[in-house]
Structure prediction request, 195 residues.
Amino acid sequence: MRRIYKKIAVVLIIVASSCELYLAGDIIAFSMINRTPQSDVAIVLGAAVWKNTPSPVFEERIKHAIALYRQGIVAKLLFTGGVGNGKQYAESEVARNYALKRGVNSSDILIETVSKTTLQNLLEAQRLLKSHALHSAILISDPLHMSRAMVMAEDIGLSVASSPTSTSRYRTLRTQAMFLLREMYFYQQYLFTGA
Prediction:
């Protein structure tokens, strides 16, 4: 019986390892897909803020959206993200202020201030798209975050093009590996729980 249990354990370990490697490969492969078709709006997924300024990670997402706006690829920017724990300002408010200081017209900015997670970011963005009659969108986040975000968008029926930031703050191998492990955890959590 011990031999049978050992063989079963080895098979389970191999299967689990293969699934993890497949997931990691999928996340990495998807991080390289960048589509920027002419669209009504760029949706920027929220990230941390430091007092009243975006964190370096969030700043890169905002800059990417502003670049698409300046190039005329999108007509509007939609910033997502509510007030984080212990924070004074909503992520989307900080992003809006950042964009305004860089010449984006206030009438071209939409925000929502209630979401706390990626899925909530997307649901709130979807609500705003409907209420403002916007039909096409580009989704912006960090490269390694895009696979999970796009799966979530598809699951809620939100049709978006993937445009990861080309200037992610996760540049070193160590920070990319840590971000990848984090994404693998949250991706699997979403697959199993839907949240």
